[in-house]
Every structure is written in C-alpha cells, then in structure tokens.
Q: What sequence folds into this?
C-alpha cells in the first residue's frame, strides 16, 4: 500500500528503494551513477543489445497488439468495410462525415460524458470520506478495508446481475424497502430519468474501493508530527482535516480524478448488462454504440471512425492530464 | 542475489523440463482421442439453453448414437447479439462450425453477404427430406433469392397460456374445456378483468420491460391481425400501415393498468407471476411450456386471440444453416445432411419442449396429436408471421432494441403511441438510408 504513495512522491524522492533508476546513459552526471563512466564502448553495445533483448517480448506485444491494430483501425475507418467482408474499398472521410452528422453518435457520446461527470464526483468524494473514516482509527480496520475494497474484486457480470435484481421494479429489494416506508415504486432501470443514476450507484458500490485504497495509503503517509504540532496549537479535527489532510492529499486527488475520468469514459459492461443502453437509449454509452454499429450492425469501417472520434476525445483528456500534472510538479 | 535464489540457468532448465512434461501429457491426450477418431468431428453451434438446450442435447446424443461415422460436438452460445455476432465473425474469418442454428428471420442478414451456403435439396432428398416435408409458410421462409438457405426445425409462435383453474372459476371456459374465444380488444380486456377478480392480482401476465423482443412479439402479432403489411427496402422509407401500428400500441398500453396486467414487469416477473397463480393468462413464447409443466400448473394454451379480424401470430423458426467453409469437406457435409435429417425425424421430442415441429410427418403423427396443450396451438403454423425482411431485422436484432427504445415509454404511459411509433419509424428509416453492409 505504501508503494502506491511513494510512486506519488517519486518526483521529490528519486532515490527511494523500489523506484526505477534513471537511465545512466541519458543522465550523464558523474558521481550519480559511477558504473556508467567506467563502461567501455563494446560493453555498452552489449548492454544495449541485452536491453533490447529484454524489451523484445514486450515490444513485440506492443507492436502486434497495439500499434498494428491502431493503424489498421485508422485505415479501416477510411473504408466501407463490413463484417461480412463486403465493400472494403477506400471511401475517404465519408464515415467521419456520417458520424459527425449522426444524432445517435452524439447522443451516446453525450451519455458517456454525462456518466463521466456524475460518476467521477461521488467516486472521488465517497472514497475520500471512506478513507477518512477508516484513517481516524476505527477498531477492526482490516474489516473496513476489506468490506470497502471487496466489491472491486467482483466481475462486472456479477455486479450487474446483482443490481438488476435489486432494481427489479416488482420483486427488487430496493422498491420493497421504499414501499415499506411508504414511498412510491421507482422504475430504476426503466425510467430514462433515473436509469443512468441507477448505473452510477452500482458503479460506485463496485469500484469506489480502488480510490478508497489510494486515498487511505496517501493519508497514512502524512507524517504524524503535522497533526501533533497542529493539536498543540489548538487545531480541532475539522481544522486539521482541511488544513493538513486535504492539502497533503492534493497530488493523490489529481491522480484519482484523472484516472477516474479515463475509467468512466470507457463505461460499457454494466450498461450493456443492466439496460443494454435503454430505456430509450438514455444510458447507451459511445463504446456500446461502437460495438453495435460494428459487430451487430456489421459496419466495421463506420464503427472504426466513431472509435477514432472517441479516441481523439480520450487523447485530449490525457493531454490535459499531462499539462496539469506537469504544472503541479514544476 | 542470495545463494538460495534460483539462477537463470536453473530456471530455464526447470522450464524446459516442465515443458517436456506438458508435451508428453499432450501426446497422450492426442493418443486418447486418436484411438476413437474413426468418427468425423462435426462442430455445431446453437443458442438453445435451459429446457430447449437439454432437449437438443438429447437429440444430438441420439443422432450421434445412431451414426457411428460422425460425432456432432455442440457449442452453446448466449441467445441474441452474442450468438449472432460470433457466428458472423467466425464465418467471415473462415473458421465457422460445419452447422449452426439460426432464427429464420436472421437469414436475410447472412445469406447475401455470403456468410452461409445454400442447401443442396437433392442431397437432402436422399435422406428423405424434401420441400413437401414442410408447411407452406415455413418452407417459403427457408428460401432467399431463389435458393434454400435454412432448414427449419420448428416454428415457435408467440401464444397465450392460461390457467384452467382460474379461467374456470372466472367462468371463461367453453364447453370443450378450453378458453372461450374473444374477438375484440374490449372483450379481451373484459375477460382479463374477470380473471383478475379471481386472482386478486392481475388478469394477464406479460413481461416486457427492457426487452425489445417481447414488446415486438406482441406488437407484431396485433399489427398483423389488422391484415396490414410491413416492408423494409434499403434506400426507401419503411412501408407500413401507421393507423394499425398506432392502434396496436394503444391497445398494448391499455393492458398495463395494474388490473389487467402489471404496469412494470420484466420477462422473469411475468413468468413467475403466472407460474404462482398471480394471473389467469400469459403472453409468451411456446418455449416456456416446460417451465409450467414442471411447476405442475393446470396450464392450457391457445394462439393469441384474434382481436382485429385477421388471425395472425408472430413467430420465428429455429433453422439449420451451413456457415460458409473455406474448403468444403464433402464427407463432413454429407454427415451434416444426415444429422439434420435425423434431428428433423426425431423432432417429436422437440415438440415436447413446446415448439411446433416443422417436419410435417411428425406434425401429422398420432403421437403429436396426443400432446396437449401443444396440439391446441398447432394451428399457429398456418397463421404465423415472420419479421419483415431486412439485413437488420429479426430475432435478437438491434432493430428490436430500437423498437423498445421508442415504445417502452408508450407502454409505460409516458408517451403517446403515435409519437413513439413515429420515432421508431424515423430510426428505421435512418437504418434504411445507410449503406447496406451485406
């Protein structure tokens, strides 16, 4: 758990054990890596070869399963390729033009962004609260950690089934509980205004444990002296939380928020299994639309074009992440 | 490194040793199958699970037992998009099974793209199966572009199950012990209300929430009862009788008033309600019959009442298709023909699962006539309506999902029937205007 926190502070403490050392040939400062200055040229060549040798399996994987599909997908998006093999001639940017004019594409992209916004906020805040509660020193800490993190280990199918039953309008636990306290039944997965929130709740229960662990690790790394000094100065628990804990957690928060945004943008499994994109397309994320146009609608080329539009969006978010984190560490 | 750790050399040696052990195990594995490998292996994919799956497995085992020359290995995949996606991809990728089950309504999405091969009827005739072996509607459906692309095992219409105890108490049974016939939407609603008085819950069960297939099955039954047609031609707007469609949707919406039927029920809830006597009637597919038999429910069945003048019933057929092989193995293909003919001739056991056999000699046999309630809806084979043909229509298709997307709110009373219908037509017209991928 502490290794998670050290990776956060890697910029400040490059010599921590377990951290990868900087490449000596690039970082040519004498004294920092004495072995590099003593190396003779043929030895370095052999080291380089060894290095490539060790990297080769990964590189091969990278080229075959990432770079090649990426390029092939880009090519495919410029063709009318169909799953049946029909019409795979080049058609230029026609797929992109069609996608940009496709209301369903925009709708599903909007759903993805909506889900990302309304899921990221609770997934970060609830994780913070849970970590705070565990960190104040409740008894049986292992139990809290386990029960907060355990759902994360379940497969999406299990979680989806489980929540589909709980959300069942006639037989579900939740509506039953609502009826007992005199509230009307809710069509959790059947009401276009509610369904996305129902999925957010399921996702929150399922994945919040990961963010919780990151926060807990970071909290436990805040030096106890800070709190001691603050209490000597008469600061109360809230004051300590807002003036010590939260600021110390900033790097973790930035990382969690960005990881969460990227994870939420990729939403597919829960939706596909709980609502299949319904009701009225209100929960269909763009990944599901890509899947539908490509695999059940056979139009691989068109589906590839939508993928690339979505890819562009994710790259934009990642670039934003890069600039935010760089500015922070500068 | 401490001395206790394994050196790289030791590790490599160990891996090599392990590898040889696995290789040896693999060889014995091969030897094991080789000794019994005089039978040719036929891969067969289908999407039949539950009671259907058990019946199909028994039929496959029987066929395997009767034919020492081949052994059919079934692979069961999940119903709907997962199955059809995998089948299309396997065929497009050149590694399909030798034989597959497909809904007859999905053939128009597979035949033009060359994903399946036509059947050679002269070869099938050698095994005693000819065009005359099938009811006319079912035989017509097996053709596409003048060739036979699918050999139907059954037709499985959407029907009405009813609880004879509840119907009897409500005074709804005729002199023959079967449910009285009703001929109009009002009469049907009145009958359902009578049954509701008996059950104190609902008169009718119909689970539809979240299921485009369910909504479509009932809708298309009612729509076809208007004597109306529906045509999907790529490049042209959908041809449809709007008034009939809207009237059908309005009737469906009127069912969900929490007296006639539950306002919000999914398939599972609907079946459970009917099975525990919470309603007198259930709209469902014939494949649900074994569930009620097993529950010892006093169940009978009939085709869905003709409410708009023309008897009609939504149906589809589980049909055998030949996924296109890169190289056709003539011996295996011959085996496949033999296997299919054996299954057709043994389809009385398939009828026990509720389906109407496609193979006429079975339908005309006394053994089939003795099956109740199957025989009470066997007339459906003459009135069945398959989905309008298009590359995107059919059982488990996205098109049915689009139907649900636009119509569910109508059934829940949130949208007007005309608005929901028009939105669905717009969605369909978009599909028709797009490039045809097959």
A:
């Amino acid at each position: 758990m502490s290794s998670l926190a050290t990776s956060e502070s890697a910029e400040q403490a490059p010599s921590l054990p377990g951290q990868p050392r900087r490449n000596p040939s690039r970082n040519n400062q004498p004294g920092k890596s004495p072995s590099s200055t003593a190396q003779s040229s043929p030895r370095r060549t052999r080291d380089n070869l060894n290095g490539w040798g060790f990297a080769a399996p990964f590189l091969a994987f990278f080229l075959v399963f990432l770079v090649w599909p990426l390029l092939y997908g880009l090519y495919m998006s410029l063709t009318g390729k169909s799953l049946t093999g029909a019409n795979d001639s080049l058609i230029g940017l026609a797929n992109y033009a069609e996608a940009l004019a496709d209301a369903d594409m925009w709708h599903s992209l909007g759903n993805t962004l909506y889900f990302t916004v309304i899921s990221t906020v609770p997934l970060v805040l609830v994780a913070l609260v849970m970590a705070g509660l565990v960190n104040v020193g409740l008894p049986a800490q292992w139990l809290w950690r386990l029960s907060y993190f355990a759902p994360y280990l379940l497969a999406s199918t299990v979680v989806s089934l489980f929540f589909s039953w709980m959300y069942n309008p006639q037989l579900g636990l939740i509506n039953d509980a609502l009826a007992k306290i005199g509230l009307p039944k809710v069509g959790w997965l059947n009401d276009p205004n509610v369904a996305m929130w129902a999925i957010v709740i399921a996702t929150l229960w399922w994945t919040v444990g990961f963010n919780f662990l990151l926060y807990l690790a970071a909290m436990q790394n805040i030096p106890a002296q800070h709190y001691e000094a603050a209490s000597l100065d008469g600061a109360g628990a809230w004051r300590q939380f807002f003036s010590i804990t939260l600021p110390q957690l900033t790097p973790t928060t930035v990382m969690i928020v960005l990881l969460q945004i990227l994870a939420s943008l990729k939403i597919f499994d829960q939706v596909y299994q709980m609502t299949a994109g319904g009701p009225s397309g209100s929960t269909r994320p763009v990944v599901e639309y890509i899947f539908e146009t490509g695999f059940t609608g056979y139009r691989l080329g068109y589906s590839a074009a939508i993928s690339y539009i979505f890819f562009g969006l994710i790259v934009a978010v990642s670039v934003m992440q890069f600039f935010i984190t760089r500015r922070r560490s500068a | 490194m401490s001395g206790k750790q394994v050196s790289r050399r030791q590790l490599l040696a160990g891996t090599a040793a392990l590898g040889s052990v696995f290789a040896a195990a693999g060889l014995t594995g091969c030897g094991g199958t080789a000794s019994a490998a005089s039978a040719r292996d036929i891969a067969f994919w289908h999407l039949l699970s539950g009671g259907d799956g058990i019946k199909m497995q028994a039929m496959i085992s029987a066929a395997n037992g009767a034919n020492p020359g081949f052994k059919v290995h079934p692979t069961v995949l999940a119903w709907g998009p997962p199955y059809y996606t995998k089948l299309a991809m396997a065929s497009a990728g050149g590694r399909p099974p030798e034989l597959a089950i497909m809904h007859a309504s999905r053939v128009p999405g597979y035949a033009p793209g060359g994903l399946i091969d036509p059947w050679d009827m002269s070869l099938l005739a050698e095994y005693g199966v000819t065009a005359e072996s099938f009811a006319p509607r079912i035989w017509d459906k097996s053709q596409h572009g003048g060739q036979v692309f699918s050999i139907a095992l059954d037709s499985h219409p959407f029907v009405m199950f009813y609880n004879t105890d509840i119907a009897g108490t409500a005074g709804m049974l005729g002199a023959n012990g079967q449910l009285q016939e009703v001929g109009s939407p009002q009469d049907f609603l009145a009958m359902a209300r009578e049954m509701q008085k008996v059950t104190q819950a609902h008169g009718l069960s119909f689970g539809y929430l979240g299921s485009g297939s369910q909504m479509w099955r009932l809708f298309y039954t009612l729509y076809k009862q208007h004597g109306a047609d529906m045509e999907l031609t790529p490049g042209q707007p959908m041809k449809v009788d709007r008034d009939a469609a809207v009237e059908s949707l309005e009737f469906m919406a009127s069912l969900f008033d929490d007296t006639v039927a539950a306002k919000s029920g999914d398939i599972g809830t609907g079946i459970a309600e009917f099975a525990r006597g919470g309603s007198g009637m259930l709209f469902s597919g014939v494949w649900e019959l074994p569930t009620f038999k097993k529950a010892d429910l006093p169940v009978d069945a009939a085709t869905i009442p003709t409410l708009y003048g023309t008897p009609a019933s939504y149906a589809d057929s589980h049909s055998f298709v030949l996924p296109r092989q890169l190289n056709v193995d003539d011996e295996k293909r011959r085996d496949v023909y033999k296997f299919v003919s054996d299954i057709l001739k043994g389809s009385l056991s398939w009828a026990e699962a509720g389906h109407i056999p496609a193979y006429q000699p079975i339908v005309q046999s006394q053994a089939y006539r003795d099956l109740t309630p199957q025989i009470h809806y066997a007339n459906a084979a003459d009135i069945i309506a398959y989905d309008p043909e298009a590359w995107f229509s059919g059982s488990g298709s996205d098109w049915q999902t689009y139907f649900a997307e636009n119509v569910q709110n109508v059934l829940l009373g949130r949208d007007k029937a005309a608005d929901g219908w028009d939105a669905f037509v717009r969605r369909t017209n978009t599909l028709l205007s797009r490039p045809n991928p097959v």
The radius of gyration of chain A is 25 Å. The first helix of chain A runs from residue 2 to 8. The interface with chain B takes residues 80, 82-87, 98, 104, 168-171, 185, 187, 189-190, 192, 275-281, 292, 295-299 of chain A (CB under 8 Å).
